[in-house]
Specification:
The protein is mainly α and 98 residues long. The protein is 88% helix and 0% strand. The protein has four helices and no strands. It has helices at residues 2-15, 17-36, 41-70, 75-96. Helix 1 packs across helix 2 (17-36), helix 1 crosses helix 3 (41-70) and helix 2 runs antiparallel to helix 3. The model has no long low-confidence stretch (mean pLDDT 84).
């Protein structure tokens, strides 16, 4: 993930936050969809680990950077709420997935 985060930051400077987040989300979504049809463990490794990891890693830096741009006051609360969303989502989602 640190490799894709670094690339996400570079892409963000060149193309802008919104485009990079959309492409990263598309890569992650494509990885989720393709991993559903995985016939072998190697295919699952490629789709789930590399595609989803790259997509999520690319979107992390622009998401944090957008918060830095839009909030002048109470930045710490904005960062805390946005970054805790992933952890809360992992906590809340599994019961609904049953």
């Amino acid at each position: 993930m640190p490799v894709s985060e670094g690339r996400g930051g570079l892409l963000c400077k060149h193309y802008g936050n919104r485009k990079v987040i959309m492409v990263g989300a598309l890569i992650g979504t494509l990885g989720f969809c393709l991993s559903f049809y995985a016939p072998t463990i190697e295919y699952l490794f490629f789709t789930f680990s590399l595609m989803i990891g790259s997509g999520l890693g690319i979107t992390f830096v622009p998401a944090v950077e957008i918060i830095n741009e839009y909030f002048d006051t109470r930045k710490t609360i904005a960062f805390g709420l946005s970054l805790s969303g992933v952890g809360c989502g992992m906590l809340v989602y599994p019961p609904f997935n049953k």
